[in-house]
Design brief:
There is one protein chain. The chain has helices at about 30-35, 45-55, 70-85, 100-110, 125-130, 170-185, 190-195, 200-205, 205-225, 240-250, 255-275, 280-290, 300-310, 335-345, and strands at about 10-15, 20-25, 40-45, 60-65, 90-95, 115-120, 135-140, 145-150, 155-160, 315, 320-325, 330-335. It is globular, with a radius of gyration of 20 Å. By secondary structure, the protein is of the alpha/beta class. It has 2 domains: about 10-165, Rossmann fold, CATH 3.40.50; about 170-348, Up-down Bundle (Dehydroquinate synthase-like, alpha domain), CATH 1.20.1090.10. Helices cover about 45% and strands about 20% of the residues. The structure holds glycine (GLY). Glycine binds near residues 131, 134, 135, 136 and 137.
Length: about 350
């Protein structure tokens, strides 16, 4: 007999809202989680093509899949469809998909009728452990990623792991970069657990992946509840992202790959600078490689450095870098551009 998942709820309290996370849930229980609100689903064509039968229980708004559609044109289209459906204060917009869907959902919900309720059903590993959590939702403007957006928490996040069955392997790999990041900055025990298992183990064992997702959702939620508006500790979540964003833009590689290479560079820098006495770069490189993530890159260092200098985390003549003291403990370190340039060829 096939056992139904046992849905359980954990609440995280932010400055203006308590977010209800439903773990081990089944989409058929979404209405129960949404209370008496009228559900409207927002998804992309790719997710819809795999899950139409289940999603059609509600009105569905669709837009084409891909980061290139995370823009104002899609927002306008969705708003017109919400008007057509008569969406109002009694409605809840539920984004079903990956990071682009969660971004568009949160952003539209923030502006439609000056704010409507919204929630997420994340369908990728990356969305389950990262994109759906934290409240930052926005769109790209030309080449400028997440240039326009809001920080506004969803009312609910609904974790139905059956969506992972249709997730391509490359998207599993992509998501594990953020999981390894969480272990590096906050959770040494998680790091050892990841060393013990493999990607195949997590794909094959539903209990294992359920525990992993819940543990990572807790790490991200706890960091964000403590510093929702990124004045301090939330910056630790940028580990690997400073160089990662620069190479992601330049080389057009998947986010997880870029973050993986960025984490290796940050580990190397942590060792090079020696002020934190970090000595565990090799262990981290080994774990990233074990989860099929790239750990180096042929690149034009001067070009990467130029892009990095333009990064929004740059402060005056320096960069706020996230470095490691040890596995499970990170620190924000201000590094002058001159110092960073000196080490740049050694670390990347
Ligand atoms: N939406 C992702 C975050 O807030 O970090």
């Amino acid at each position: 007999m096939l056992l139904k998942p046992i849905m359980h709820k954990t609440e995280y309290t932010f400055s203006t809202k308590t977010v209800a996370c439903y773990f081990d849930a089944d989409l058929s229980s979404l209405a129960q989680a949404a209370g008496n609100k009228n559900i409207i689903i927002l998804t992309d064509e790719n997710v819809y093509s795999h899950h139409a039968a289940r999603l059609n229980a509600y009105p569905v708004i669709r837009f084409p899949a891909g980061e290139e559609h995370k823009n104002q044109a899609t927002v306008d289209q969705v708003i017109h469809e919400l008007i057509k459906l008569g969406a109002n204060k009694d409605s809840i917009l539920i984004g079903v998909g990956g990071g682009v869907v969660t971004d568009i959902t949160g952003y539209v919900a923030a502006v439609y009728m000056r704010g409507m309720q919204f929630g997420f059903v994340p369908t990728s590993i990356l969305a389950m452990v990262d994109a759906a959590i934290g409240g930052k939702n926005g769109i790209d403007v030309g080449v400028y990623k997440n240039m326009v957006g809001t920080i506004r928490q969803p009312d609910l996040i609904f974790f139905d792991y059956s969506f992972l069955q249709s997730l391509p392997v490359k998207e599993w790999v992509n998501g594990f970069a953020e999981i390894i990041k969480h272990a590096c900055i906050k959770d040494a025990l998680l790091f050892s657990i990841l060393e013990r298992y493999s990607l195949h183990d997590y794909q094959a064992d539903k209990t294992l992946i359920a525990d992993l997702i819940e543990r990572n959702a807790a790490i991200k939620s706890t960091v964000v509840t403590a510093d929702e508006f990124e004045k301090g500790d939330r910056k630790l979540l940028n580990f690997g992202h400073t160089i990662g964003h620069a190479i992601e833009n330049l080389h057009q590689i998947p986010h997880g790959h870029a973050v993986s290479i960025g984490m290796v560079a940050a580990c190397n820098l942590s060792e090079e600078l020696n002020m934190l006495h970090f000595e565990e770069a090799t262990r981290i490189v080994k774990l990233l490689a074990k989860y099929h993530l790239p750990v180096d890159l042929e690149t034009d260092h001067a070009k990467v450095f130029e892009v990095l200098k333009m990064d929004k985390k740059r402060r005056d003549e320096g960069v706020q870098f996230i470095l490691l003291k040890r596995i499970g403990e990170a620190e924000i370190v201000y590094i002058s551009l001159a110092d960073l340039e000196k080490h740049f060829k050694e670390i990347l």
